[in-house]
């Protein structure tokens, strides 16, 4: 199973967990498996068919936007990081 690390702002949607595990051979499959256990995460990460542009997704510290997106291969020992984009300033 892949390990999914959740940013603090997403943890409340996963029962307060810092990280969870999910199965799948692609990022899309892993996320689908994740949503089965934590359905409220779907609205935050993937409200449409594609990933939200307000959430940065990394597989082993590589941004999936520069890989194959939801088709990015994921192995059992891989780490996925979900990090909402932050904005601010004046």
From TrEMBL:
Pfam families assigned: ThiS (PF02597)
Identification of the protein by name: Molybdopterin synthase sulfur carrier subunit
> What is the species listed in this Swiss-Prot or TrEMBL entry?
Dictyobacter kobayashii
């Amino acid at each position: 199973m892949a390990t999914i690390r959740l940013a603090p702002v997403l943890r409340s949607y996963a029962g307060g967990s810092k990280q969870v595990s999910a199965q799948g051979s692609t990022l899309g499959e892993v996320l689908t498996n994740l949503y089965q256990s934590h359905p409220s995460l779907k609205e935050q990460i993937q409200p449409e068919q594609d990933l939200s542009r307000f959430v940065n997704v990394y597989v082993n510290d590589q941004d999936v936007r520069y890989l194959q997106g939801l088709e990015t291969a994921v192995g059992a020992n891989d780490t996925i990081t979900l990090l909402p984009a932050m904005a601010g300033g004046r």
